[in-house]
Amino acid sequence: MPGLSAVPAPQPEPSTRWLVGLLLVAALLPRLGVFFINENLFGDAVVRTELAERWLAAPHVITSYKDGTYQFGPLHLYLVGAVLSVFERDVAGRLVSLVFGVLSVVPLFALTRRLFGWRAGVAAGLAFSAWGMHLQFSTTAGSEAVSLFFMLAVFALVAEGVEENRFQPLFWGAVLLNFACALRYDAWMYIPLITVALVFSSEDRVASLTRAVGFGLVCLPFPLLWMQGNELAHGDPFFPIKAVDDFHKQWVSDSGGAGGALGWRLQQLGFWPGVALFTLTPGVALLGGVGMVRAWKKHPETRWLVVMAVLPALYFTFRAAVLLSFVPLARFTVTQLVLVPVFLAPGLAAVVGSRGDFARRAVVGVSAVLAVVMPVALGLYTFRTEGGLHDSLRPVSPTSTNPVAVMQVARFLKDEVAAKGGAAAIDDDPRYMDLQVAFFSGLPEMRMARVRWDTFRQRLGDARPEVLVRFDGGQLVKDPGVKLDGRTLTLDGVAYQEQDGFSAPLHVYRRQP
């Protein structure tokens, strides 16, 4: 018809494969840039790797807390253990995180594209690629990057199933949620959250209830088997979760929050927004936050995803600020924060409105510059630098490096003890740096006597260590069999002489002839 000639033809969407490939490259390059300089430090990375080594030495199906996994998810130990059969211990866990960290951009793009279009999907993927905190997670051996991949895949499949009114995507989303639950316990809360959200996913109540019941049932196999295993092993199906809760309650007390000081409560109230603004950077965080509000009003079909981000954050904030039973860490926020870039497009539309192309380009440009410059500056600021603000910011920095003094002792043990078939005794440290010394020393377990272990005395007798590492504030000097006299430490009648060249709080001793 002649009148249609005035209507511009819609621009075709670029190839999805090309877009996904572009985003994979964008996610991979910055992570490769820090992979070769980062070290396992946070997220219990070294402990997870050591437990994976034990599992690899005797592979079996882990059935409970005390069956080799403790407070960690068994699936992560399987993954790291499998890679340990090919790569060294310092690389294996980090490689697992790198693969899943880079792949996470695929379900994020799919989810955002489905809700707001391909341009929004590209914007979310690029913002995710530059997320400094996730760069650290993707290059160290914690479980955050792996768990986040599965959670994003769950959200993408749920969105697909609801929009297309098909149960198959919901089924596979529930299967993947089992995997997420086998990685981290915070994923468990999404079983009831998503199930309830599906109840309200359609005006057809029969269809909605059918989706919800089916999804909920498929989510149950791992949680039920894990609860049964812990019931048989500990007499309590929720033993691991209660153990983690007890640890956090004690942590609140040790951190000075048990009295309910106003400063502590205010700090916890602002934790999730603060981490979002600082790690996602202000432009991404503010646009995404505004986008969530706009989407709630203008796009009711996306409200369930807003709930997935907001409700868990409110729950953990309530526990931290009101109940004083939880200590939040930045790495605990990732499942909620990763959904913020999904809403960048509606946020930009709300902020710019009808102000024109110049305003749009200015907002996008400033946000993009901040998203790149802030992580780079933070990574340089915390790289191999200790003390004060450096230590406080390191958990959210793209770069993760151990204290210089710790690595100096670890290298000494590796070169002078492990390489020569020797053994060492290692004190415990209130900041858990003894875990880092032991891990990077390269010493096998049977050639270490660690104060942190209840087998310390037995290992002392078996290994007869010629080198001893002591920490200021450690428990070793409180042992009744230990006497410290100047630069000489006597342990069970064996004298050790302190060596020069090492910095406090670490002290290295050699056994006297």
Sum this structure up briefly.
The chain is mainly alpha-helical. It has two domains: 16-379, no CATH class; 404-511.
Description:
Residues 74-212 form the Glycosyltransferase RgtA/B/C/D-like domain. Keywords: Cell membrane, Glycosyltransferase, Membrane, Transferase, Transmembrane, Transmembrane helix. The chain crosses the membrane at residues 18-38, 91-110, 116-133, 145-162, 182-200, 212-229, 271-293, 305-327, 333-351, 363-383. It is found in: Cell membrane. This protein is mainly α. The protein folds into 2 domains: 16-379, no CATH class; 404-511. Helices cover 61% and strands 6% of the residues. It contains 25 helices and 7 strands. The protein has helices spanning 16-35, 45-57, 65-69, 74-84, 89-103, 105-116, 118-129, 132-137, 144-164, 167-181, 190-199, 205-218, 221-234, 239-254, 262-269, 271-279, 282-298, 303-323, 334-337, 344-352, 357-382, 389-393, 404-416, 433-441, 456-463, and strands spanning 424-426, 448-450, 467-471, 482-485, 488-491, 494-498, 506-511. The chain has a 7-stranded mixed β-sheet with strand order 2-1-3-7-6-5-4. Helix 16 (271-279) crosses helix 17 (282-298). It starts with 15 loop residues before the first helix and ends with a strand.
